[in-house]
């Protein structure tokens, strides 16, 4: 049985980026999967806002419903 080696990634000492995500359009009339993505981000009503860390998962969710979101980048200190 082969042993898989994993590389340890060193985190950069730079500040992590956070995303301020706001739902700016209603999801009425959009497919159910897009409504579920908004729910997964923690967005419920129009103009609701959440702050999430920048990660590939969150960026993928934002990409799926970018037409109803406004996203701002915040540098965390």
Care to describe what's here?
With 77 residues, the chain is of the alpha+beta class. It has one domain (17-75): Ribosomal Protein L30, Chain: A (2-Layer Sandwich). It has helices spanning 32-41, 56-64, and strands at residues 17-23, 49-53, 69-75. It has a 3-stranded antiparallel β-sheet with strand order 2-1-3, with no helix packed on it. The longest helix has 10 residues, at 32-41. The chain is flat.
Please write out the topology.
Layout (H helix, E strand, L loop, with lengths): L16 E7 L8 H10 L7 E5 L2 H9 L4 E7 L2
Antiparallel strand pairs: 1-2, 1-3
Helix pairs in contact: 1-2
In round numbers, the mean pLDDT is: 88
Alpha-carbon Rg, integer: 16 Å
Q: What percentage of the residues does DSSP assign to strands (E)?
A: 15-25%
Q: Helicity level, as a percent range?
A: 10-25%
Number of helices: 2
Sheet with the most strands, sense and barrel status: 3 strands, antiparallel
By CATH reckoning, the class would read: Alpha Beta
Question: How would you name the CATH homologous superfamily?
Answer: Ribosomal protein L30/L7
Query: What global shape is seen?
Result: flat
**Beta-strand segment tally:** 3
CATH topology: Ribosomal Protein L30, Chain: A
Which CATH architecture? 2-Layer Sandwich
Distance between the termini: 45 Å
Note the run of SSEs as H and E.
EHEHE
Structural class: alpha+beta
| Tally of structural domains | 1
Low-confidence stretches: none
